[in-house]
Amino acid sequence: MKNTSDKPLSVTIVVTSQVVRYTGVALKKLPKRREKKDLKPKKEQTVSITFNAEEYAGFAEENPMLRFTVMVMVSSGQSFAKQAVVAINGPDLTLSLAPPHVPNKVKPGETVNVKVEFDLPSDVKELTNCKLMFDGSALEAPVEFQLPDTKSTKFVAEKPVTIKKITKGRLNVELIAMLSSKEMSAVEGIISLDLEK
């Protein structure tokens, strides 16, 4: 905010927000934020208003967005309003080839161990009924594994997959992993693999 006048001003900022589906349907209204600031003549000030992840984390499976409405009222009688919608990015799986493989290099028909990792969101204390599925142009068909429950703050799994026998044309392939559990679903990650001839 910037006061371009020669007089001090009082500014009131009100922010309302909702967790919404991509269709715009509201899932939850978040508590209203209100800030009042005094601006000296010819001075500038930044105002930070925080929304904690815990307030909307329970809707991660909905692929939600946050819709903000910002209203600003100035003691001079001026007012301003604006709305913004932002996507909430969920966690991604990190994929890597387990040693002794050279990072991201595979041979057609070779079986490799793939390490899958990600940090659990702060509101998720455990993962139960876990399934890990691999798919993508690197495989002949999807492969699924049932995994034990975990109470760690970091998910780590290592599983074997066999690279399909590609005879010509391809220089690289993609391997996609998707983790689902009772607590979370559709957590995905991808790795691009170079084919050695």
Offer a few descriptive terms.
197 residues, mainly beta, Immunoglobulin-like, five-stranded mixed beta sheet, four-stranded antiparallel beta sheet, 12 strands, 0% helix, 50% strand, elongated
Brief overview, please?
The chain has 197 residues and is mainly beta.
Report on this structure.
This protein has 197 residues and is an all-beta fold. The protein has two domains: 9-87, Immunoglobulin-like (Sandwich), CATH 2.60.40; 94-195, Immunoglobulins (Immunoglobulin-like). It has strands at 9-20, 26-39, 65-74, 79-87, 94-97, 105-106, 111-119, 130-135, 143-147, 154-162, 172-180, 187-195. It is elongated. The mean pLDDT is 88.
**Which range best describes the helical content: under 10%, 10-25%, 25-40%, 40-55%, 55-70% or over 70%?**
under 10%
What kind of sheet is the major sheet? 5 strands, mixed
The CATH superfamily name of the largest domain is Immunoglobulins
CATH architecture of the largest domain: Sandwich
Rg from Cα: 25 Å
CATH class of the largest domain: Mainly Beta
CATH topology value of the largest domain: Immunoglobulin-like
Number of helices: 0
Question: Strand portion, in percent?
Answer: over 45%
What letter string, H or E per element, gives the SSE order?
EEEEEEEEEEEE
